[in-house]
Amino acid sequence: MAGADPDAERCPRGLARAAVGAGGRAAARRLLARGLSVAVLEARGRVGGRTVTTMLRGHPVDLGAHWLHAGPINPLVALGLARGEPLRRAAQESHLRIGRRPARPAESAAFARAWAVADRAIGDGARLGGPDRPAASALPPGLGPWGPRVALVHGLVSGRPLGEVSLHDFPSMEYGDNFFIQGGYGAYLARLARFLPVALRAPVRAIDWSGEGVALDAGEHGVLRARAVVVTAPMMLLRDQDAVRFRPHLPDPVRAAIDGFSAGIYEHVVLHWPSAPFRGRDRLATLLGHRLQPPGLLTRVDGAPFHFFELDAPLAHRLDAARAGADGARRLVRETLAAHVGASGIRDLAVPAVSEWRHDPWSRGSWAVVPPGHAGARDRLKEPVGGRIWFAGEALSRAQWGTAGGAWEEGERAADAVADALA
Ligand SMILES: Cc1cc2nc3c(=O)[nH]c(=O)nc-3n(C[C@H](O)[C@H](O)[C@H](O)COP(=O)(O)OP(=O)(O)OC[C@H]3O[C@@H](n4cnc5c(N)ncnc54)[C@H](O)[C@@H]3O)c2cc1C
Predict the structure, then answer these.
(1) Is residue 225 within 8 Å of residue 214, measured between CB atoms?
(2) Nearest residue by C-alpha to atom 27 in ligand 1
(3) Which of 58, 135, 274, 422 has CB 3.0 to 4.6 Å from 170, enough for a Cys bridge?
(4) What is the ipTM of this complex?
């Protein structure tokens, strides 16, 4: 949240507030750079939001965002390069296995063709205009045996199956030219939060904009007054009107834009698996030829024996319906990988961490998804409410939706708008 305090004696240059995920950090840094004083209110006991790096067996491992997507337009890539951060381009090579063998060249080529055809069809479908519809409806029928896999992976990275994703919103994401950062994305973003005036464990329960400026009810931290606020809490949380209460209520179009998002689900099951049959570092692996398939698999992360087995929304929902918890995810992963490499192939497999962002009270999902018919919501939320409430964060980014880079871009945009408005 970010704003400027009307109490000129106490705070002559204004006071800004933000929750510190990527979007909040960007907003706070930009507001400081624009000469406003900043206070940051963060619900958790740590900064980082959905970016966090933890140490597992002495190695830094991201439990949230890991890829710096869309290198040419991602502000965190440009900033990282300028700061001399240890960025490296993501590998283009990947693994494709069918049953217990590597795919033949003709199979790999057919798979690549199916991707190209599907992506072109979705792009063309969106460009055609007309009423919005599910992205799945644009997939051409002739993808053969590769079609279900292409649809599943698009659903994984979208956060919901393609039938639940807006066609018009879908192609806005630029996935090419990705980067990784040694030491973890979460650790990098934590470095960018250094020196920010952050109040931790300060959840904002209510935002009163009935009078002049805004009053933020931060529980034990008291009521903080400001001339404006930038709200970077996830849309999945803002949909719950009891989580952050707005007084008066938000205007109907704004409330409808927030409520229309659905929760994207994408979870890391972190594997420590030294003998995994994948060579090269940071390579995606596709395992086909069995009923059980990892929706996503990133192998030898940072060249270490760690791998990310990615859960998509359907798998996560199935685990939740069975009340299986993290151990259920571990069993599922073992069963799936054993189906592809045999029981002896997973003898040294350990699963040291399973993320559950969908159950985290301060995220309630991995990123916000635009369902069919809701395209336009991101742009709708860019308009300030009452000239003093700005929204930011990943959900507002068109070109980098669902990403830390998009959250950063939107935090800076909102901060500039606030600074211009309060100048
Ligand atoms: C498993 C996983 C993998 C991902 N992989 C990638 C990836 O590879 N690359 C990528 O770019 N993105 C990835 N993402 C998405 C990325 O992490 C998010 O899009 C991005 O971090 C969101 O940033 P944000 O600032 O919008 O929100 P957040 O990071 O969620 O920040 C919002 C902050 O607001 C705080 N907050 C919430 N409610 C309140 C309140 N009431 N009062 C005060 N504070 C509050 C939260 O605690 C949080 O710190 C992934 C996400 C997940 C979960």
Answers:
(1) yes
(2) 21
(3) 135
(4) 0.99
